[in-house]
């Protein structure tokens, strides 16, 4: 019985560390969103930090509910897998929209002409007859 | 102890949402606003998970899942609209 009580105490510290780490990651990601100079660097900050922050927060919730109810409680994994799958897709779509809207690059961006070439390139359904 | 930690995390995520709100209002182009909305919904999922932890109930999980799905669909719909001028072709 004491080992189970110890498990509850230790898991509290573990969950607290996971929650604090996750919230820190999300704070840093949103700070980057507010602070960074152009759209493409802003796209970098929240998509990576938010998935990592959400992963830590959801893992903390998973551990806490599993220890409290003394059974495996893997509901949260559904959300984290869903976010891990969808965050790169939505980041890709937003980046492509920004490239085609010719958002300006920050000064010192390397290979800027590649972005211009990507903006010139049309999609597979975009073939006009001209 | 854990309730204090949850309160601190709620404050941090609230601050993060304020940063997103600032970018949503200021954002020079619509792509920045979409990105700010995307980050806002991810932060709100974390807030709901923390609320469920605070009350010790798994009821809020479904709300978080719903926000995750609707947020992805709306982000990709708006990005598709910006790219092609149409959502379903």
As residue ranges, the low-confidence spans of chain A are none
Helix fraction of chain A, binned, reads over 70%
Order of helices and strands of chain A: HHHH
Q: Let me know the number of strands of chain A.
A: 0
The helix tally of chain A amounts to 4
Tell me the major beta sheet of chain A: none
**CATH A-level architecture of chain B:** Orthogonal Bundle
Concise synopsis of the structure shown:
The complex is a heterodimer of chains A (130) and B (89). Chain A is an all-alpha fold and 130 residues long.
Characterise the protein shown here:
By secondary structure, chain A is mostly helical. Chain A has one domain. Helix content of chain A is 77%, strand content 0%. Chain A has four helices and no strands. Chain A has helices at residues 2-35, 39-69, 75-100, 112-120. The radius of gyration of chain A is 21 Å and the shape is elongated. The mean pLDDT of chain A is 83. Chain B has one domain (2-84): Helix Hairpins, CATH 1.10.287. The longest helix of chain B is centred in the middle third of the chain and has 26 residues, at 30-55. Chain B is 84% helix and 0% strand. Chain B has helices spanning 2-26, 30-55, 61-84. Chain B is built from three helices and no strands. The mean pLDDT of chain B is 90. Chain B is flat. Chain B has 89 residues and is an all-alpha fold. At the A-B interface, helix 1, helix 2 and helix 3 of A face helix 1, helix 2 and helix 3 of B.
